[in-house]
# Entry
Amino acid sequence: MDSPFSHFSRHFDFPEIAHVPALKAFEWVGRGWQDLRQSPMASLGHGFVVTMLMVFATELAYGRPFLFTAMASGFLLLGPLFALCFYEISRAHEAGEATGFGAAFYAWRRNTRSVALFGLILAIIVIAWERVSAILFALLYGGGMPAMETFMEDVFLSGRYPMLVAAFLLVGAVFALFVFCIAVVSLPMMMHCGTDVATAMATSVRAVAANPFATLLWAIAIVVLTAFGFATSLFGMVLVMPVLGHASWHAYRDMVR
# Structure
């Protein structure tokens, strides 16, 4: 039986999508860890750089709770872009090439135009999410903004704002799902094959549609590991970002032929 997107493949030059077992997501995490162990200096070095960017952004937003929350979740949306260097390290491992911090830093040069355009798309989505977040707080939160120290308890744990919490989580999930679908294999494919943005995003959506259970578990793994990174005051992101970035490369290689 044809997939829902099979008629597109007859008219456009799309790669074949492989069907993978649901538990493949856990294997991707394991292979991501192996790549980190194979190039610890380059992987952890880039993990540290990305984490410092996150710390800087959250510090700028500190004192404005809705903006702080939007910025923190916005990093999830921008995650595929920050993982470019880890894709390059995994690609080099696969090709038997030398890996290093500097070479991985310039991974975007493999397809500058497409990477830049996709980065612009993600940036627009993050800005839209921040504006929607501000509107939700303006409409559904009563009184002045709480102090950052009591923000989570006052808004999300007190039970006084169920509509705000429900709307925030629902709309945030829609943004996250959209980005996940268009980005799960897009950037690795752009780097590896020189693919244009439209083809890469369409292929990503097809990969998710063809592997719903594997990609669902993969999304859950991303959320759980990222939550661990935030729970450790972002220090854990130094380790989490490389593992997820390398694992994303293997997800792409297993699903896209």
About this structure: Residues 7-11 have pLDDT under 50 and may be disordered. The chain has 13 helices and no strands.
